[in-house]
Amino acid sequence: MKKLIIQENQKGFLFKNGRYVRLLEAGRYYLSGNSEVVLSDLGEPLRVSNCVLDTLLADKAVSRQTVAIEVADEQLALHFVNGNFVSALRCGRYAFWSTVDRHEFRLVDISTPEVDDCVPAYIFSKLPVGCYIKIEVAEYQRARLYFDRKLVRMLDAGVYYFWKTGVKVEADFVDTRLTQMNITGQEILTQDKVSLRINFVCSYRVTDYVRILTEIDDYEEQMHVAAQLALRDYVGRYRLDEILENKDQLSRHVYEKLKAKEQELFVEITDADVKDIILPGEIREIMNTVLVAEKRAQANVITRREEVASTRSLLNTARMMEENRTLYKLKELEYIERICENVGNITLNGSGDLLSQLACMLRSGNSGSTNAAGSVIGGADAQYGG
Q: Contact 34/47 with Cβ under 8 angstroms?
C-alpha cells in the first residue's frame, strides 16, 4: 500500500488499471499497486495528460466544481479571474476550478482584423504579440489602412490594434505637416543664350491623402517637373539682365503655375521662391568687372561733388568777409588763435596794439616761420623766447 496526502489547494483524480474512477478531495489516502492518482492545483486549468477533458467533466462531482468554455475557430476567449484579465484562449475546450476563484469569459470574433469596441485596449499589453498587430499614428501623421492590399480607410492620430488573422494588415503613413521641395541645379538658357543654374524651393501640404495615392503616380515627381517647365518657360523669354533685375517676378510666375495645378495634384502650394541663380564662371568675372567699374565711377562722382561743395563754401565765406569787415576780423582772430595754440612764447616790441602787431607780422613777407620749439620769430621789432 502507498500513502498519498492531497493538500487543501489540490484535487486528485483516481485511476485504476489506467481507467478514471473518481475525484478525490483533500485528505490522506492509501493506494494499492494498480491505483494511480493525478493531482491538479486549484489555481491551474483542469488538465490531465492520460485522460481527455470530456471524460473528467462527465463526472458530476467534477462538473459541479468547475467552469468550462469552448472556443471555436476564428474566436478568442478573454479569460478574467475575479474580474482581472489573465489570458486569451485560442480555439479548444478549457476547464477551470471554480471552488476558489471566479472565472469569466468573453468570446471575441477574430474572423476579421477589426477589434470590437467591447475589447478594452489595456489587455493588448498582456496578450502575446502573435495575437495582434499594433499601429501607431503620430500627431502630425495620417495613415492609409489596407487589408490584403485593399484600402479600407484613413486612420487619424492614435494607437490602433488589429487581430492577426489570415488577412494581411498594412499601414501607409502620410506626413500632414508643411513639406518643402527643393529643385536644384536646373541649367536653363536665357534669351541671350546665357546658361543659368537656378535653385528653386517651394512648400506644399497634401490635401487628399487617398486620391493622391490612387489617381497619381509619384505626385512629388510631377510637382518637380511642373516647376521645371515653369522655370524654363520664364527664363527662355528674357535676357540675363532682365532676369537678375526681376527675380521676384520669376518666383511669382512659377508660383502661379504651380497653384494652377493644385486641384489635379491634390496639394496646397503655400510658397515658392528662387533660392539661388548661379552664373557661369566667365559671366561672373565680367559682371564683377562691371560692378567694380560702376563703384569706382560712383566714388569719383562723390569726390567731385564734395570738391565742388567745398569750393563753393570757400567762395561764399570769402564773399561774406569781403562785404563785412567785422566778420573778416573775427576770422583773422580765429586763425591767429589756431597758430598761437602751437606756439610756446611770443615777445613783441614796438608801438601799436597787440592784435595789430600780430596781424601785421603774419601778413608781412619778411615774417619768419615757426621754429621747432614752437615760437614765432618776428621781424626787426620782434624778439622771441622758447
A: no
